[in-house]
Design goal:
Number of domains: 2
Structural class: alpha/beta
CATH superfamily of the largest domain: ANL, N-terminal domain
CATH class of the largest domain: Alpha Beta
Distance between the termini: 54 Å
Strand content: 15-25%
Largest sheet: 7 strands, mixed
Helix content: 25-40%
CATH architecture of the largest domain: 3-Layer(aba) Sandwich
Shape: globular
Number of strands: 32
Radius of gyration: 24 Å
Bound molecules: coenzyme A, adenosine monophosphate
Number of helices: 20
CATH topology of the largest domain: Rossmann fold
Strand order of the largest sheet: 5-4-17-16-18-19-20
């Protein structure tokens, strides 16, 4: 399989043959005889008659193959100055025993477990332990506040929550336990079991709240065996921002996920089991699920888990130190991290201090890799800088430069070509395919390949309405862009109210809901505006109620605190502007896109359906744009 065009064509013309062949990279308990179940379009399933266990594919089989002494996970914390390495045999031991702890608390196949943890090895151990039991994990990013955690608890109805005393952010600790307590208080589906990994650096412990202590439980735990599950059984739920305030519970299956990730490690990333691979993200995001935990371990490679930032922990050489110290061959991170390093160290003076000889490739995703950052990183690092585009929903790359298949010339501003399995097209509002270079909605012809979302947790109606109904026969990505004459896909941005702040996906709708709840606010709009470092940031425009008596500063302070308390620090909501009115269509829809164009200084369009042009004119004057 060396030629991209042939591989892509076969994946589209003969998906069954293509993916059944890829499935041989996985150890099945019952090998599948069929790859694609297309009996109920537009819902598709993969490997309908196969059974397996994802955790034993990530651990047991490497140990059984005599690779138990190989490093599986290297934890490097710039926050506490500590490093820890687990071989495959050691990680298997920890995971089996923690699976025993969970089983002792009544967790079994199909049960949900919420994992709310910082970047410590126990987060990966808890995920793999759930997979071992056939339980469904739902990891919640540590930057979310109690109400967001509560929403996820209510939707997933977990049997247990696994957490830690807290996380470490530069200059402060984040105490998780009071947030877990508050979330339990807010939710209707609160589980009775909470297991806490105590971190000495953060105050609060399991005993303070009457919960179970991770270490005590592990001391007496009996290892649990891997449970056989159907390929189509859920492995995890990962909540992501939609256009409304209510997050979407993206469901990933076991079989398709294992096959797709194993395939991607070799053909998208060109990683071998002898390599040390590092994804600098967080286990709370899809990138962390797929490429800190499952992908590299399914392959049998070494994965690095890093607790720290690209800058300030302690300096802009932090990433280069980790690469040099652990012999990392490829790093996957978000463009924001590169921009942060560049801002702090424009000449990359820190780079010269480290041995980068093993480093071959930098992968970027999570947001558009802007040509400027691409050029800087390429010049300074002297290795290919590879953009690739994907989403929580797809779980792995939709468009990439396939390093293990047929690397193609890199062009700035594009993630290159559709990955085998993803029949990417660009269509206009009527669903008609547009000409090369014309911008439109990026869609993927169904079926999506293995590893992509199996649905939304217990909400098939929303799955259909969000992704499958806009253009029948196609999956709606929510991104807009174009394909050039060479078949390269350029992703330009979201066409909905989802924004991307430092590679973190947020819903402006959920921020708006918080802002609108302020007693002095009559109405508001939150839009994502350009930010040099973070790509985008949320910016709020507020109309006050008649007679409201609050200064702009006091209003801003209130709103910033409210968003932080309700959604979390990760929302990075800081901009508040009081305006006289919001431009709307006659049907009352706020012209958010026009507002964003005005604020970003772009040419803006005025729809013919505008209700009152003078409101827009006043806004243009206030925001200082022509
Ligand atoms: N737990 C609790 N709080 C968190 C958190 C976590 N896991 N992660 C971030 N936060 C907090 C930060 O402390 C910050 O709080 P503050 O307002 O009190 O300062 C806030 O959320 C915003 O964080 P962030 O957007 O990350 O900004 P930053 O200034 O701390 O760091 C970068 C900026 C560029 C260094 C950082 O965003 C980064 O490394 N980005 C890489 C992107 C990435 O990994 N994306 C994942 C998808 S691939
Ligand atoms: P998430 O679900 O958090 O991974 O965010 C997915 C969204 O991030 C996509 O729909 C895109 O809008 C954006 N995104 C991710 N990777 C890229 C990329 N390489 N280029 C452009 N946008 C990207």
């Amino acid at each position: 399989m060396a030629n991209y065009a042939d591989a892509f064509a076969r994946s589209i013309d003969d998906p069954d043959g293509f993916w059944l062949e890829a499935a041989s990279a996985i150890d099945w308990m019952t090998p599948p005889t069929k790859a694609l179940d297309d009996s109920a379009p537009p819902i598709y399933r993969w490997f309908p008659d196969g059974t397996l266990n994802t955790s034993s594919n990530a651990l047991d089989r490497h140990v059984a193959a005599g690779r138990g002494d190989r490093d599986a996970l290297i934890w490097d914390s710039a926050m506490v100055g500590e490093k820890r390495t687990y071989t495959y045999a050691q990680l298997l031991d920890e995971v089996s025993r923690f699976a025993g702890v969970l089983a002792g608390q009544g967790v079994s196949k199909g049960d949900r477990v919420i994992i709310y943890m910082p970047m410590i090895p126990e987060a990966a151990i808890a995920m793999l332990a759930c997979a071992r039991l056939g339980a469904v994990h739902s990891v919640v990013f540590g930057g979310f506040a109690a109400p967001e955690l509560a929403t996820r608890i209510d939707d997933a109805a977990p049997v247990a929550i696994v957490t830690a005393s807290g996380g470490l952010e530069p200059g402060r600790t984040v105490e998780y336990l009071p947030m877990v307590r508050d979330a339990l208080g807010l939710s209707e589906m609160a589980p009775s079991t909470v297991i806490v990994k105590d971190r000495p650096q953060v105050s609060g412990s399991a005993t303070d709240f009457g919960w179970l202590d991770w270490d005590q439980q592990m001391a007496t735990a009996e290892p649990a065996d891997a449970v056989e599950v159907a390929a189509t059984d859920p492995l995890y739920i990962l909540y992501t921002s939609g256009t409304t305030g209510k997050p979407k519970g993206v469901v990933r299956d076991n079989g398709g996920h294992a096959v797709a990730l194993a395939w991607s490690m070799r053909y998208v990333y060109d990683v071998s089991p002898e390599d040390v691979w590092w994804t600098a993200s967080d286990v709370g995001w899809v990138v962390g699920h797929s490429y800190i935990v499952y992908g590299p371990l399914l392959l049998g490679a070494t994965t690095v888990m890093y607790e720290g930032k690209p800058v300030g922990t302690p300096d802009a050489g932090a990433f280069w130190r980790v690469i040099a110290e652990h012999g990392v061959s490829a790093l996957f991170t978000a463009p924001t991290a590169i921009r942060a390093i560049r801002k702090a160290d424009p000449e990359a003076a820190e780079l010269a201090k480290y041995d980068m000889s093993k480093f071959t490739t930098l992968f970027a995703a999570g947001e558009r890799l802007d040509p400027d950052t691409f050029a800087w990183a390429s010049a300074k690092l002297g290795v290919p800088v590879v953009d690739h585009w994907w989403q929580t929903e797809t779980g792995w790359a939709i468009v990439a430069n396939l390093r293990g298949l047929e690397p193609m010339p890199l062009k700035p501003g594009t993630a290159t070509v559709p990955v085998p399995g993803f029949n990417v097209q660009v269509v206009d509002a009527d669903g008609k395919q547009v000409a090369a270079t014309a911008e439109g909605n990026i869609v993927v012809k169904l079926p999506l390949p293995p590893g992509t979302l199996a649905g939304l947790w217990q909400d098939e109606a929303r799955f259909r309405s969000s992704y499958l109904q806009a253009f029948p026969g196609y999956y709606l990505t929510g991104d807009s862009g174009y394909i050039d004459e060479d078949g390269y896909v350029f992703v330009l941005g979201r066409s909905d109210d989802v924004i991307n702040v430092a590679g973190h996906r947020l819903s402006t709708g959920s921020i708006e809901a918080v802002v609108a709840a302020h007693p002095d606010v009559a109405e508001c709009a939150v839009i994502g505006i350009h930010d040099d470092l973070k790509g985008q940031r949320p910016s709020g425009y507020v109309v006050l109620k008649a007679g409201a008596n609050i200064s702009d500063d006091a209003l801003r302070a209130d709103l910033v605190k409210m968003v932080r308390d309700e959604i979390g620090a990760v929302a990075t909501f800081r901009d508040v502007t009081v305006v006289q009115g919001l431009p709307k269509t006659r049907s009352g829809k706020i012209l958010r896109k026009t507002m964003r164009q005005i604020v970003d200084g772009e040419e803006y369009s005025v729809p013919s359906t505008i209700e009152d042009k003078s409101v827009l004119d006043a806004l243009v004057e206030q925001l200082g744009q022509e």
